Structure prediction request, 630 residues.
Amino acid sequence: MSRYLHVLAAHPHNRDALQGVFGSALPFRAFAAAARLMQQAPDAFSREQQAQLTQWLAATHLRWGAQPSVDQQQRYREIDWALAELERLKGDTGWQVLEIADKKQRALAYDALVALQARQRNEECIALYRSLAATDEEIPAYALSAAGLALLEAGQPEQAKTLFEQLRSQDKKRYRYSEGLFYSLSDIEEFTSAAALIEEVTATEPPLIATFDGRGKIPNPTRLSADIASAYADAYRDDLQTAQQQLQQFSEAAPHNHHLRADLGTLFRWRGWPRRAEQELALAAGYQREDESVDTRIQQAHGYLDRTWVAPARPAIDRLNATYPEKKAVERLAQRWNTFNARELLMDYTQGRSSGAQFGTRHWTLDSYLFDRRNDSGSRWYLHNFHSDAELGQGDVQYNLQTLGYQWVDDGLTLNVEAGKALAGSNEAVASARADWWLDDHWNLGAELQFTSRATPLRAIDNDIDSDSLDLSLNYRWSELRSAGTGVNSARFDDGNDRHGLFGFYRQRLYNSAVYKLTGEVGASYSANSQADSPYFNPDEDRTLYLQLENEWRVYRRADHSFHHRLYLTLGDYYQKGFGSGELWRWRYEHEWEIGLPFRLVYGISRGRAVYDGEAEFENSLYLTLNWNF
Prediction:
């Protein structure tokens, strides 16, 4: 090469010298230097040489990438250039018309697979891969890997699993193939296989590896990635406690690893601790480059929504949408944000028949809310309709309240205020105020004051008796596994009766897995009335003790779609002053469907035994709960 360079120094356009330098540069992959020669004297090179060099340059850009751009709006500049060059070389027909037998076109297509996936144009990448896979020609590993990632991003984990299994059978040491297979297995809920895969990887990767000069050792980045994946394997099968313990152990060993802190913050979010999560995520984001902190900032934005904290959520989501609209995680965040701001219908319906007449031999209740879109602060107007109907022996009794309300939200606080009129069963005006406030990640305070209360018994309504009520509650939530709460309630009836009560409960997860969960709850309640012989049920004193087991099975889950069914078994004792104790029990079976973020439907049936004035009554009922954002 030095001889050719000497000739070019004296004769810059010497064709033989240019060809000599060009040919000498290619074996060393000095494509940029070769391109400069071609720009210096394009007439010295054939069209075939120009096309070949352009393809090699594009492939180099795609496979090795470039330094991260400070301006994130320009981060795809190199990829877009490479993709444009590949498409120019392919010609006007585009990738839909591919001459499979042409080796040059296939080579272009392989590089285009990488470019399309890197650009998050996953559907185009998948279509191109399938046209290539339809032949008997072997597709290079780097192109198959890009197709697998595109399938995974596009929500087709079964097909991605097949590709990554094929790649891993060829080269088990390349971690990205194992990682792709791990996430494919997790997405199709083959959790045991996913965990076994990561255990195999960690067993073969030492914690430390030698430096390039052989004089020391440094942490093995592949082992750390596998350790983090192992923690996520536990998280994906709903063992969040074990996953947290693993990540905390890794973070303590490497306190300045901000990627680990971001992962730990994400797990805190999943456990229902958004404030604790924000501390870790904010610390991680502060030390990461902008291109490194995208996933961290996505989790921060989710945390703001967890807390209904609109002030920081809106600019954070807008910025992510403007800068990274092609990212699937940003797209999911935008969907959640749109759902949060959309109109919303909440509806609870119950219908039942009883063997006794204390609360009606036939009864039904519909409680519904229709919320408008949220304004810039996150607040919104709504309509509330409550209707209760029962056959009490003397005839049909109806109680209907309709109100206009306003909901205000801030960091962990939701306040509802509403006012309206009773349209059936009473002539009174209706007003209420309700607050739900998360004081931190664990303590929750609830309060509701009602004038013309929805809790007024229908027998009281039938005798022209109204009531006002006050409810206070204080709950503590350790995590998704355990919670407890207590509260007091009071009602004043306009016949002079005052009712006061208190209650408490404790819930504990007894068995936890991805498919089946068993949760136990114990609780107690007490109430007393100041006046006897009212036309509605008002014992001097009564108390209830109960034990409940909740069995939950997950039948199906894919992304934001899922189907669960549950069986509740409740056994307890009811004591009424003057009548002694009696056994109470109830079983309840339900289905729950979640169809994307905007739609949730629960329906079920139940049968139970209760005791009133010493007499047992049996009730059969069905119920439905709808939550629909539109």
About this structure: Residues 569 and 587 are 5 Å apart (CA to CA). The longest strand covers residues 541-558. Residues 47-64 form the longest helix (18 residues). The radius of gyration is 33 Å.
